[in-house]
Design brief:
single chain, about 220 residues, mainly alpha, 8 helices, about 75% helix
């Protein structure tokens, strides 16, 4: 229990430090947008580390000892995602929920439905539901109540959450207001490509190991 608390403090402290650094990296932005993107960036980074730890541990057994950090990383992935959303709700759309799907048009002086903007936010909302479920069940009590099999099934949905986050992030990085400067565009492509490649390598490593067992 003491080790879990220590890991929570370490990951939580790291989340705050990284959020501040990401905020500073967008000094030319409006502070509200800089903060919401900063927390969103940290959430994406922690989620990516979780995905990489699980995959790389299948390739390099020495990394298995680090898997214990996935729970804390998962919790703070959710916390930073929630802060990201709260900043948007309060500072951007001012709790007018329809503005998650509509944008103001100067041509008609009214709010109009924006399909791309709406889809991007719908993906974010569905991702939020997933991360809340993952956060609520990321504890020993949930394992006891649900049983190992059901709990493992729920936690393995993290891959769905990852895909939703990638799609949501991709829209706002490359399609929504693309002329706005954002240094994350290139690192994002490199990161998701690297994660995909590690999954591909882990797939072939697993097949190779299974083939060796069959021959043995």
């Amino acid at each position: 229990m003491k080790n879990c608390f220590t890991r929570q403090l370490i990951v939580g402290g790291l989340a705050l430090i990284l959020s501040y650094l990401f905020f500073l990296s967008r000094g030319q932005w409006d502070p509200m947008h800089a903060w919401n993107r900063a927390f969103g960036d940290v959430s994406l980074l922690f989620l990516s580390v979780i995905m990489l730890l699980g995959t790389l541990s299948k390739i390099f057994k020495s990394l298995t000892k680090w898997l214990v950090w996935r729970r804390e990383l998962g919790v703070w992935t959710g916390v930073t995602a929630i802060v990201h959303i709260i900043i948007i709700l309060d500072g951007w759309i001012q709790w007018q929920m329809f503005r998650l799907f509509f944008v103001f048009s100067n041509f008609v002086a009214d709010w109009v439905l924006h399909p791309g903007f709406a889809l991007g936010n719908i993906l974010g909302i569905v991702a939020l539901v997933y991360v809340l479920i993952l956060m609520v069940t990321s504890n020993d009590l949930s394992i006891k109540l649900m049983g190992n099999r059901a709990w493992s099934y729920v936690q393995q949905r993290a891959h769905i959450f990852y895909v939703l986050v990638v799609l949501h992030t991709s829209y706002f990085l490359y399609l929504h207001n693309p002329e706005a400067p954002n240094w994350l565009r290139t690192p994002f492509i490199i990161l998701i490509t690297f994660i995909w490649l590690t999954h591909l390598v882990a797939f072939f490593v697993t097949i190779s190991k299974n083939s060796q067992k069959i021959r043995a």
